């Protein structure tokens, strides 16, 4: 077997299962799972209808490049969402459907890395675990850019030494971030573009939470928007990852797309032709319905906004909770050991959260996730409120 498999770390949810395996929470309490970032709102009717209406299309093999109408719907959405001029995204050469961003993030790194040159993949720390696994399996060295409260949860691009940028082949950015919920400002995206040009690396921008944000007047900017505003009309060295999982609350559909530099998209298409990750036609047609409609995404977003509105006042007296810019996580300091907090919370209140240290790696300055937990506001608003009350009780009573 591939010896690089030995370099993979245990996945956070396996660690969490081990951490809580021996714990028996009180039998009278209904367990509440807030560890996994799995959207649980009802899928939109338009998507289900389109899926049902096209099931007979299972009679054909799908193509890797996808249906023209899907690529057109994705390109039109990118233009609408990021206020790009009509016709600025070419569906034929700049868009490629993927089966959710998870597989695409992984596959992209395999296609992008030239392992003859001691490659580096830079990424935020904490990070979505696929970035690291993809880098390790591609034979690259991860370079971790800590995102801590002290630096406003932003990767400090200026702190990266010149020799690291020289060997960097891919820089991952995630906005809004998982787990921090931080939106990367335009200036930071612009600086990343300048560095990518200077050192000739690719920016892989994971924007799968871009439609989940808390301030309706401030939708998160996207990398392609900053490209365009700075005259980089061909999105040189950029690839962005979008998904319906969070936007449309259909994590089971497995539908997303990548968009960006046509030279990169063409090479990734070649890779995917062999990789075999074509999207089934009914999924493609259901995805067309989802990308063409913004109303359901706005309703979905409001459900998350409502949860933050209701949960934050309950937790604020007992935890230093901060309202994130986007995504649906609370990334909170628990003023102590995060594994212990997680285990004791489960034991006392049957609530599962994720220890922050599981989502990050320790560097010279320690593990930036240590002492924090990630709480996913994915259950119903009522259940989130109940969970917040139980967490408050846990801190005031059980932990006192
Ligand atoms: C930051 C981030 N990127 C990508 C994904 C993958 O999402 P999907 O494969 O459903 O598009 C997730 C899922 O939780 C995520 O949190």
Word description of this protein:
The longest helix is centred in the last third of the chain and has 21 residues. This protein has 2 domains: 143 residues, Aspartate Aminotransferase, domain 1; 241 residues, Aspartate Aminotransferase, domain 2 (3-Layer(aba) Sandwich). The strands form 3 sheets. The protein has a 7-stranded mixed beta sheet, with helices on both faces. The protein has 400 residues and is α/β, with parallel strands linked by helices. It starts with 11 loop residues before the first helix and ends with a helix. Strand 3, helix 6 and strand 4 form a beta-alpha-beta unit. The protein is globular and about 60 Å long. It is built from 15 helices and 12 strands. It binds pyridoxal-5'-phosphate. Pyridoxal-5'-phosphate (PLP) binds next to helix 5.
